[in-house]
C-alpha cells in the first residue's frame, strides 16, 4: 500500500522561507487540535500525494526553487520524514520545517544529521493554558524541542498566534519572560488571529489592544506579522 502523507503542495512562495524562493508541502494530520487552527481540512484530512510524487515534482524544480517548506498539519509525525528529507537535501534544496514541537526526538535527529536549514517553532502557550488551546498536555515535549534548537546552531524562530480570549496581554508578558529566562535571542513573531477565517473551533472575535503592542523585551526583537 502506498502511503500518501501529503495533503497538498503550494508550488511557489516568496514569503514562507526567509531569503529563499520555496514550495510548501502540506502534511495531513496533526497531534494537536488548536482551537484557532486555520487548516482544519489539513488537520482532519487525508493525504493525497505520496513522497515519490512530491519528489518527481521537486525534480522538475531543481535550479528553479531554493527551498522546501515542510508544513501542515505536523510533518514530524510521519515515520518516513527523515529519509524523505535526505532525498530532498540530495537534490540541493534548503529545508525549513514548521513544527509544534511535540516530537523532540525527530527534531534531534534532523539537527544531528544536518538536514534542516531553518525551523519555525510554535510556542502555543505556557503550561497552564496549553491543554485548553491545543488539546495536548505535552508542554514538556515542546520545551525539549525548544531547548534542543536553542542549544544548536540551526537558525530558528519562535512564533505565537494571539487570540485575545486565549492569550491576554498579561499572559503574553509571561511568555516573553519565559523566553528571556530560556536565553532566547532570535526574533519572536506574533501572529494576530484573523477574525472571519474558518478555524477548527468557533471562537469569539479577537481584539488585539494596545497593551499587546506594548509588550517588549530587551533580549530579543518582537515582531507582529
Ligand atoms: S495550528 Fe495546531 S492543530 Fe493546526 S496544524 Fe498547527 S499545531 Fe496542528
Description:
This protein is α/β, with parallel strands linked by helices and 225 residues long. The chain is built from 8 helices and 8 strands, in the order ββααβαβαβααβαβαβ. The protein has helices spanning 40-43, 51-59, 81-90, 104-112, 127-134, 139-150, 169-181, 210-214; strands at residues 6-13, 22-27, 67-72, 94-99, 118-122, 156-162, 188-192, 222-224. It has an 8-stranded mixed beta sheet, with helices on one face. α7 (169-181) links the parallel β6 and β7. The model has no long low-confidence stretch (mean pLDDT 96). Iron/sulfur cluster binds at residues 30, 32-34, 37, 39, 43, 72-74, 100.
Write a concise synopsis of the structure shown.
The protein is α/β, with parallel strands linked by helices and 225 residues long. The protein is 31% helix and 20% strand. The relative contact order is 0.14.
What share of the residues lie within helices? 25-40%
Hetero groups in this structure are: iron/sulfur cluster
Approximate shape: globular
Strand neighbour order, sheet with most strands: 1-2-3-4-5-6-7-8
Gyration radius, rounded:
17 Å
SS elements, strand count: 8
Q: How widely separated are the two ends?
A: 42 Å
User: Quaternary status of these chains?
Assistant: single chain
Low-confidence stretches: none
Query: What is the helix/strand order?
Result: EEHHEHEHEHHEHEHE
Query: Tally the helices: what do you get?
Result: 8
**Class per helix and strand makeup:** alpha/beta
Query: Beta fraction of the residues?
Result: 15-25%
On the 0 to 100 scale, the average pLDDT is 96
Main beta-sheet strand count, sense and barrel state:
8 strands, mixed
Amino acid at each position: 500500500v502506498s502511503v500518501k502523507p501529503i495533503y497538498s503542495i503550494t508550488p511557489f512562495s516568496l514569503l514562507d522561507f526567509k531569503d529563499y524562493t520555496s514550495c510548501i508541502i502540506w502534511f495531513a494530520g496533526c497531534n494537536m487540535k488548536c482551537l484557532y487552527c486555520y487548516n482544519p481540512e489539513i488537520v482532519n484530512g487525508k493525504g493525497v500525494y505520496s513522497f515519490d510524487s512530491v519528489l518527481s515534482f521537486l525534480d522538475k524544480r531543481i535550479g528553479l526553487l531554493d527551498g522546501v517548506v515542510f508544513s501542515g498539519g505536523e510533518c514530524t509525525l510521519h515515520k518516513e520524514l527523515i529519509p524523505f528529507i535526505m532525498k530532498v537535501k540530495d537534490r540541493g534544496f534548503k529545508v525549513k520545517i514548521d513544527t509544534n514541537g511535540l516530537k523532540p526526538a525527530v527534531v534531534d535527529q534532523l539537527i544531528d544529521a544536518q538536514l534542516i536549514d531553518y525551523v519555525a517553532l510554535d510556542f502555543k502557550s505556557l503550561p497552564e493554558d496549553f491543554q485548553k488551546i491545543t488539546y495536548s498536555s505535552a508542554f514538556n515535549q515542546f520545551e525539549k524541542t525548544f531547548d534542543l534548537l536553542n542549544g544548536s546552531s540551526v537558525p530558528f524562530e519562535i512564533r505565537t498566534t494571539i487570540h485575545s480570549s486565549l492569550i491576554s496581554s498579561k499572559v503574553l508578558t509571561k511568555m516573553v519572560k519565559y523566553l528571556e529566562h530560556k536565553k532566547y535571542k532570535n526574533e519572536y513573531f506574533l501572529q494576530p488571529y484573523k477574525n472571519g477565517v474558518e478555524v477548527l473551533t468557533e471562537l469569539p472575535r479577537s481584539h488585539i489592544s494596545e497593551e499587546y503592542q506594548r509588550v517588549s523585551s530587551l533580549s530579543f526583537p518582537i515582531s507582529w506579522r
